[in-house]
Amino acid sequence: MIVRRYIKDWLERKKPPFGAISSSVLLMIIYTTFCDTFSNPNIDLDKFSLILILFIIFSIQLSFMLLTFIFSTRNNSGFTPADTVAIIFCSTHKSLTLGIPMLKIVFAGHEHLSLISVPLLIYHPVQILLGSVLVPTIKSWMVSRQKGVKLTRPTV
């Protein structure tokens, strides 16, 4: 924070590609984790088990999103429609960049680390896919609710 005071103007002029760097690092973490997991000869995972894990994770993700929607839209919750959308997406989304290092620390040296990391490797793409599929529906719900809130507010 101290350094920022002195280089703020320079950063605003140059606009370093911090977003691209961050995305590249995230991509490398995901890539190396996938490679480590699925290139391990000790991983004993058949297609049926993988599909079952995918179904369970999809169901869990959808259930969490539905529960957060139900609790955040109750009459006495005090949340706006925009708050509800933020709650739905932020409360259920977990990052692979946090989960994989934690798994590697907690299960360091465990012979089945690759197998243990499979659900997390599936959860991350499922949350992105499910989020992108639900965005149009949630957006139309939010817009209609916000219009309803504007119509019912008393004007002064």
UniProtKB/TrEMBL annotation:
Domain of life according to the entry: Eukaryota
Record field: transmembrane: 20-39, 51-72, 84-107, 113-135
InterPro entries (alphabetical): Na+/solute_symporter_sf (IPR038770), Put_Na-Bile_cotransptr (IPR016833)
Keyword entries, A-Z: Membrane, Transmembrane, Transmembrane helix
The family this protein is said to belong to: Belongs to the bile acid:sodium symporter (BASS) (TC 2.A.28) family.
Protein's UniProt name: Solute carrier family 10 member 7
Source organism per UniProt: Equus caballus (Horse)
